[in-house]
Design a protein that fits this description.
Two copies of one chain form a homodimer. By secondary structure, chain A is an alpha/beta fold. Chain A contains ten helices and 18 strands. Chain A has an eight-stranded mixed sheet, sandwiched between helices. The termini of chain A are far apart. At the A-B interface, helix 1, helix 2, strand 7, strand 8 and strand 9 of A face helix 1, helix 2, strand 7, strand 8 and strand 9 of B.
């Protein structure tokens, strides 16, 4: 039946000018990007009238200058490591998406094409793909935050089998937080959180867990276009049309936990609760975990934006502030006294937030508070945060 | 806290070249599209080296030729009716997306920018916006289809309040099917189904209902990128890498109903089940409803691809085939004998599938089977399908 209708619609549409009417899009006849068997990647763009075309992306440092033949520009990379890569074209100096590649992710207000290189099963690229494994469900739900005075959206991953009729099991929960400019979509799009968890759980490398991805910007309710503030253009700065937040993310965090623990079959208690986040979300993790000692048994700071005391005071280092701030010291002491199973810090060697993270480690060392540390190559980029999730999530709830 | 981190990250990122590293995207400094107070719309594109720039979209018939000033091209439309509109730019003859507009929808393999014009509360454009009303949840779930031998994905909308802890109510279910080339994402993106239901339910114009949006292509499991076939480019034709489907959509439909009725708090029985779909999904609705008389109390054909007998035989009209095909006649008679509350047909006056729908109406008239009919302006386009959903969903479960 399906094939019959497909054929009818296809034939009729081609001859009736339907595509023009409907912007249906028949796709481009050229293939781009093409991931070659040797793991080089070829980009192609049809642009007969262009003067200069280049491809820019996180697979190499400089632009790839594309060469034209019969109106089609192309460029082939060096051999690439298994990974998810982002790229765009620069046509006559203006940034443009690849019309032949349907795969795109949004970061703040910008869409960027992506592709995934994977050499073999179990390599890093393959963790970001939808493989032949049981899949979890991903829901966008709304919860009330009385602390913020808002109804807010979040994304919740439940692992494969959670919804099976006969399943009465309770699951541990990972709270997974995005960075500034992101929203409740970031970890399931750029972060590949559902694919990573599906694949690690199927391989027996991570425990089945629920993953809760709230919106960390406390003066908004949801991602752009998904709430009543209208179809605003998201940005890093605070949109003056939005209300001033009534509270901070860490203050409001119990609203999220209360929602999750009342509606899902979860195991309660610190040994079944983990929290981690990237950049601003790493800051939220840092603040929330010390504000509520004993709430989380596993705490992960991914390239975390760590602030102590007055962030505007640049006359002192973060370490100096830590050594002076008795409230900070008391909160951290109470948190470690509650005995978290893991305090984990990951950061890239060129990350601009590394100094604060170095200071935190120095302070923890000086107090003898235990933590694990991973220093990766690179900077403040999604590649690192995906890697940190694959490392951190394996350590949870064992 | 949020503002503090935002400011830190913003300042540090701007001065550290982070955006180049991360393709974060700071957005364009120009506004496009701008919806003016008089409901005209202005498009703008920065393209200093371009020779010709036009905007094409479903808001007018021909291209809007853009004029350049200081490297920025612009065009302003006539006054537009409240509606969701799709558009792209044509730069030097090549199609390009609007880099200043974060709002895009995918149709098959093509992304297109969109915007929504809304004049006042309750107009058609406003039904497609996220307004200050309670919102339902939207989940992507996986179900087993033994009939197809596949684990498959679908999208499920549960209305506001469904998940409240104290709520024990059971809800009716609308099964909402996409067209050829679409997938389980189509109705919540281009179709604005969640916004339409949120707004109609909040206004008391539609009953609270669960909406189930399965994938209608029986040889695939899920939307592109969401299943293990890899990152293929979707198309209207059958991808030779996919397995031949083991059964048709209508044959496999009970697998979907079984999943939904076992996992959600639903009211069972025909008076609490509705089915509708567009184009191929209208064909699936037509086939499924007559294959299972008494399963659905409400049946809606939206620009339906109706086939009876051998679709390749063009020597006879659909009406002639209906008058000859005793299996079709028996199925339809059994379905109407079961007393559906509504058999609804909607189609555009210029739709290429109108002849088959005219024939179906003639046949129904000849037998005295009751139905409701809506003929709208325009053709085989999403605008009509959104309109049909707003009309049809109001008639359900009263």
């Amino acid at each position: 039946m399906k094939r019959i209708f497909t054929t009818i619609v296809l034939l009729t549409a081609v001859t009736s000018g339907l595509s023009a009417q409907q912007a249906l899009g028949w796709g481009e006849s050229i293939v781009s990007p093409e991931i070659n068997p040797d793991r080089t990647v070829t980009f192609r763009l049809r642009a007969p009238k262009a003067v200069t075309v280049a491809v820019v992306g996180d697979f190499q440092d400089g632009p790839g200058i594309m060469k034209e033949e019969a109106g089609v520009w192309s460029y082939t990379t060096e051999k690439l490591e298994p990974e998810l890569y982002l790229y765009s074209f620069i046509v006559n100096g203006s940034r443009q998406l690849d019309p032949a590649n349907v795969y795109m992710s949004r970061d703040v207000a910008t869409w960027t094409n992506y592709f995934i290189v994977s050499g073999e099963e179990g390599d890093r690229g393959s963790l970001y793909l939808d493989n032949k494994v049981p899949h979890g469900d991903v829901a966008r739900v709304w919860y009330d935050s009385p602390t913020l005075g808002l109804s807010r959206k979040m994304t919740i991953y439940t692992p494969a089998g959670y919804s099976a009729v006969s399943n009465k099991a309770r699951y541990p929960v990972l709270y997974l937080l995005h960075g500034a400019g992101g929203d409740e979509e970031a970890w399931v799009t750029l972060g590949r959180a559902a694919e990573i968890l599906d694949n690690l759980i199927a391989a027996g490398k991570a425990e089945p867990m629920i993953v809760v991805m709230p919106n960390g910007n406390t003066n908004t309710s949801a991602a752009p276009g998904a709430w009543s503030a209208g179809m605003y253009q998201p940005s890093f700065g605070r949109d003056p049309r939005f209300p001033e937040a009534k509270a901070t993310m860490d203050e409001s965090f119990p609203d999220i936990v209360r929602y999750v623990e009342s509606r899902y079959r979860v195991r309660k208690g610190a040994e079944s609760r983990a929290i981690c986040g990237l950049s601003m979300g790493g800051g939220h993790t840092f603040m929330t975990s010390k504000r509520y000692p004993g709430m989380f048994g596993y705490i992960g700071l991914f390239s975390a934006a760590i602030t102590v005391g007055n962030w505007q005071d640049r006359s002192k280092s973060t370490l100096e502030k830590m050594n002076e701030d008795t409230e900070f010291q008391q909160q951290m002491a109470a948190m470690f006294a509650a005995g978290p199973r893991l305090y984990w810090i990951g950061i890239g060697e060129t990350d601009f937030l590394k100094p604060q993270n170095d200071d935190l480690r120095s302070w923890l060392d000086s107090k003898g508070f235990p933590y694990e540390y991973l220093e990766s190559s690179g900077g403040h980029v999604w590649r690192n945060w995906r890697i940190y999730l694959t490392v951190f999530s394996r350590k949870l709830f064992k």
